[in-house]
């Protein structure tokens, strides 16, 4: 038996993440995965009592990673009487860790703006569902120690392509956009029948039928260059589970791609990389990481500078080295140009 009408409109990602943060803030003792999936907005609509909820559990695992990336301190608590048991793990957000630092002070103008923003959250479309979530929590015996509607997660800004793609999805029409693949010198125009917008590992993707090859393709929104043009050309598709299919494909790619890196002990790199979904320590100094896109991972690893060394695969090692070399070359060029200007000024 499903808790809600299976034909109900899908809950937006931001609303699901907000409801999850809201629920976890409201509970000092934390909530089990089953309590979350059966009661929190965005999960409960698809939850099946005594049924198969494996796809919903995978969604929850991705959402945990996303809210951690947003800076939310999510804790996992083992039951004292069942050490090592994953079945009754509880999840919570310690309120003290999510409070603003005591030394942050706002001006009267900033406080006014924050109050207006809070009012928008309270009076917006999430208000009814927030109250529903609190009611559900109380039915589980969970009482909020303090009002929680004043809290809101820091939602990552969407790419400019998101809204026009969403509009085209609703209208079932083809779109055109310039797409720049890593390694290409110039973007190439794509004509796509959009089927689903999905968020995976904190990044937005659109899955659709590439009209040039008449095959399904998944595009990263951050690589769409320039505006998305919505055409008036309609399309028909029998794909009813495009979003789930796209996420399964991305998960399969993520599972198959593994990198081994050496991170400096007690460094920022070690701390951050160990918090990534699926990260495993394979030796005292080496970590195993899953990834979906080697270019995105190379960007991330290069940002850690000397704190990280890529052991494998070789192509990732080369990609990181190229980024570091480009950084060195850019800074060297800047210094030379700066020195030249100073010499001219002294003449």
UniProtKB/TrEMBL annotation:
Q: Which InterPro entries does the protein's record reference?
A: CBASS_pafABC_assoc_protein, WCX_dom, WYL_dom
Q: Which UniProt keywords apply?
A: Proteasome
The WYL domain extends over 161-225
Supply one GO CC term from the record: proteasome complex
Where the record annotates domain WCX, the positions are 262-325
Q: Which is an annotated Pfam family here?
A: WCX
The opening ranks of the lineage are: Bacteria, Bacillati, Actinomycetota, Actinomycetes, Micrococcales
- Under which name does UniProt file this protein? Proteasome accessory factor B
